[in-house]
Each structure stands twice: as structure tokens, then as C-alpha cells.
């Protein structure tokens, strides 16, 4: 497990990677998206889609793969 490196640039820190099998390398951190679209438990509103997608894209750009 590797900690993200600190950087002085405006680039987001990258997430560390772990070996999940002999040929599978995944991010050390995951993101749950099951609440996206759930109106019953999370009062989801389609008007939130753009904001939710921006947050999701930032996490993916940081290297989260699961």
C-alpha cells in the first residue's frame, strides 16, 4: 500500500495501487456509487447529475478504479 505523494502542482494526488491477484492491479481506495439514483433512501434528484458526475470524475481522475 502506497500513500499518495504530496505535490505542489494543482494536479490532484494519485491514489496508491494494490495487487488484487496475480494479474490484477487496482486502486487502494474504492468509491461507492449505489446511492446515485436512489430516490427512496437518498432523496436523489436528477438535477444533481452534473454535480455528482463532476465529483465522480475527480475521483476517477485521481486514479480510483473500483
Fold and architecture overview:
The chain is an alpha+beta fold. It is 26% helix and 14% strand. The chain contains 2 helices and 2 strands; from the N terminus they run ββαα. The protein has helices spanning 39-42, 49-61; strands at residues 17-21, 24-27. Strands 1-2 form a two-stranded antiparallel ribbon. It is flat, with a radius of gyration of 15 Å. It starts with 16 loop residues before the first strand and ends in a 5-residue tail after the last helix.
**How many individual β-strands?**
2
Average pLDDT: 81
- Quote the distance from N terminus to C terminus: 15 Å
- Envelope shape: flat
Helix content: 25-40%
Proportion of residues in β-strands: 5-15%
Largest sheet: 2 strands, antiparallel
Rg, Cα atoms, Å: 15 Å
List low-pLDDT spans: none
State the strand order across the main sheet. Answer: 1-2
Provide the structure class. alpha+beta
* Helix count from the secondary structure assignment: 2
Order of helices and strands: EEHH
Quickly describe the structure.
It contains 2 helices and 2 strands, in the order ββαα.
Task: Please describe the structure with a list of short key phrases separated by commas or semicolons.
66 residues; two-stranded antiparallel ribbon; 2 helices; 2 strands
